[in-house]
Design brief:
CATH topology of the largest domain: Rossmann fold
Oligomer: single chain
Number of domains: 2
Number of strands: 5
Radius of gyration: 17 Å
Pfam families: GerE (PF00196), Response_reg (PF00072)
Protein name: Response regulator transcription factor
Low-confidence stretches: none
Distance between the termini: 38 Å
CATH architecture of the largest domain: 3-Layer(aba) Sandwich
GO molecular function, one term: DNA binding
Organism: Streptomyces sioyaensis
Strand order of the largest sheet: 2-1-3-4-5
CATH superfamily of the largest domain: Response regulator
Keywords: DNA-binding, Phosphoprotein, Transcription, Transcription regulation
Order of helices and strands: EHEHEHEHEHHHHHHH
Structural class: alpha/beta
Mean pLDDT: 83
């Protein structure tokens, strides 16, 4: 069972997501939190596999909470819920350690699948969110020098895989694109994370954007 903690300051949202997720045979909602501060406390006690995190909340917002949760547990998986008018927070949340994003108007099936993807260690970036993220990095201008320097540690194939990860492709999709076995892609991703000192695929995506391996044109 995938254990989930739902964090949102709106009762109806928490209850709605709880009903949807508890209806899934492989997912269990183990708790709810009304703000970021309570979320940090409950994560320490409940040890959920995935934290479904809203961004705008009183006391402590989702960005601060995500940062504290990930700092306390490097293996923590935080799935941030966002709406179109909150997309300006995407970059900040990724930098804070979020494992992925899901739009609040997602269907029950998309919500459950999003939880499963993040729990398995994959990154989850909705296409609209990915476009916004690329635009944000484009707006920031000059790529970070340390990121560019570290690219030299990667092989040509690893760099190619990194770009595809940043574009939101799963291991299976990358394998199909490159015409290789999925196990080969997993090996490449593992090596990329080790070489670059990154914790997960989402950080790998952030790195690719910072190094300007991914641009608005591709």
């Amino acid at each position: 069972m995938i254990r989930v903690l739902i964090v949102d300051d709106q009762v109806m949202v928490r209850e709605g997501f709880s009903v949807l997720l508890n209806a899934m045979p492989d997912i269990e909602v183990v708790g709810e939190a009304v703000d970021g501060r309570q979320a940090v406390q409950k994560v320490g006690v409940l040890r959920p596999d995935v934290v479904l995190m809203d961004i705008r909340m009183p006391e402590m917002n989702g960005l601060e909470a995500t940062r504290e949760i990930v700092a306390a547990d490097a293996d923590a998986k935080v799935l941030v819920l966002t709406t179109f008018d909150l997309d300006e927070y995407v970059y900040q949340a990724l930098r804070s350690g979020a494992s992925g994003f899901l739009l609040k108007d997602a269907s029950a099936g998309q919500l459950a699948e999003g939880v499963r993807i993040v729990a398995s260690g994959e990154a989850l970036l909705a296409p609209t969110v990915t476009k916004r993220l690329i635009s944000e990095f484009s707006r920031l201008g000059t790529p970070r020098a340390p990121a560019q320097e570290r690219i030299a540690d990667l092989t040509e194939r690893e760099t190619e895989v990194l770009v595809l990860v940043a574009q939101g492709l799963s291991n299976g999709e990358i394998a199909e694109h490159l015409v290789v076995a999925e196990s080969t892609v997993k090996t490449h991703v593992s090596r990329i994370l080790v070489k670059l000192g990154l914790r997960d695929r989402t950080q790998a995506a952030v790195f690719a954007y910072e190094a300007r391996l991914v641009t608005p044109g591709g």
